[in-house]
Structures are given as C-alpha cells and as structure tokens.
Specification:
Length: 149
C-alpha cells in the first residue's frame, strides 16, 4: 500500500461521524488559511515570508506523497496566498488579528467535532496529520471528479 493511501485511511479512521466530517470541511481550510496568514506576517528576508517558506516545505511533503495531490495542493495554496494578500490589502497590519481569531475559532470547531466523533484528533498521534488533513479533504474532491490520487 502506498504511503498516501495508508495515511488517508488512518486519518479517516477518526473522521467517520457525518457532523465531524462537515466540521472538518469548514475548519481544516480555515486553519490552513489562518496559519499561512499568520506565518505570512513574519518577514524572513526582503519580501519573503515565513508563510511562503511553509508552503514550500509543505509542497515538498505533498510531492513526495502524490504528484496529483501535490498539484491540487499547490493550486489551493496559491488561492490561499492570493486571499491572504487581498485581506492584507483591506485590513493592513491588522490582518494577523483576523488570522488569529479565525485560527482559534477553527480549532475550537475541530475539537468540538472530535468530541462528537468520540476520537482524538489524528495529529495528537503524529504531527504529520496536520498536513494530511487538507489532502484528505482534497482526495474526496479528486474521487468525485474521477481523478487519480
């Protein structure tokens, strides 16, 4: 069994409840967006941000697991980067506050979902599941579209 298949299956084991799944469809993208947004506010060198570096490292993780999921995650990451920059254009330096509030609210939602599920979040077992969560959602989109994982 390929590593990506094993990871998606293992992640799915603690995401069987329909309400928890729905919460994940809302909260996982919100966490991803807000985390990247928070990291985007930290300049590393010139106009390069910690958020950009995070997306680069995450992309390396995804390409190692699945070329097709990597392509999808890059497209999602570009859309989120555009959204983050657009938000900065509207609220300026207060963007970090928006991201922090969204990040906190989305994590509350995640833990409520897992309380309903009756199982602990997968990342408590292995931190790589923080990156598997977005890919787990994307794999459902791929399946629906008839695309390979």
């Amino acid at each position: 069994m390929r590593t990506i298949d094993r990871l998606l299956e293992e992640y799915g084991e603690s995401h069987q409840n329909a309400t928890n799944k729905w919460i994940h469809w809302v909260c996982v993208p919100a966490i991803m967006f807000s985390l990247i947004g928070l990291l985007w506010t930290v300049r590393v060198y010139g106009s390069v941000t910690l958020g950009m570096l995070f997306l680069g490292v995450a992309s390396l993780y995804y390409v190692r697991l699945s070329l097709s999921l990597f392509v999808g995650m890059v497209l999602i990451s570009l859309a989120m980067a555009w959204g983050i920059m657009s938000l900065e254009g509207v609220v300026g330096s207060a963007a970090w506050q928006v991201h922090l509030g969204l990040f906190a609210a989305a994590w509350v939602g995640q833990f409520i979902g897992h309380q309903i599920e009756g199982k602990k979040p997968s990342f408590l077992k292995d931190l790589q599941f923080l990156l598997v969560g977005p890919a787990w959602l994307l794999h459902f989109v791929y399946r629906k579209a008839g695309l390979p994982i």
